[in-house]
Amino acid sequence: MIQFISAINWLSVLVALVAYSALGALWFTLLFKKQYAKSLGKENENLQNSAPIFIIGPMICSLLITITCALLIHALGIQTITGSLEFAAIVGIGYLFSNTVNIAINPNMPRPIPYGIISGMFHLVGMLIVCSILVSMK
């Protein structure tokens, strides 16, 4: 799998990363801000935190996810948008959504299911966008 690194279109990875990050910014600060705060049990608090870890951390994770998708798309020979959407659904639901819900189910999360759905759906939609970009820019 490592041998495929040279075959990656790094511009497509950058474009997909920007799109994934922009989606995250919109998802958690505009589209689902109230629901997200409520899922965290902080509906009466301001969740705006500009500490670097809350900006850089998710971008690094999104970069790793995007690179992994690029490697797998290449290794699996996915060439079409339809194929990319099927792959994104498998990865988005099978790994990202289910893992997000699993992480949320712990005694420290006041509303694990709403949190898991909001955050998991972000990753699913993100994967659909990322994989579409990666394949269309091949």
Task: Provide an overview of this structure.
It is a single chain. This protein is an all-alpha fold and 138 residues long. The protein has one domain (2-136). The protein is built from five helices and no strands. It has helices at 10-31, 33-39, 52-76, 81-104, 112-136. The radius of gyration is 16 Å and the shape is elongated. The relative contact order is 0.19. The model has no long low-confidence stretch (mean pLDDT 93).
Structural class determined from secondary elements: mainly alpha
Tally the helices: what do you get?
A: 5
Low-confidence stretches: none
> How many structural units, i.e. domains?
1
For the biggest sheet, the summary is: none
User: How much is the radius of gyration in Å?
Assistant: 16 Å
Shape: elongated
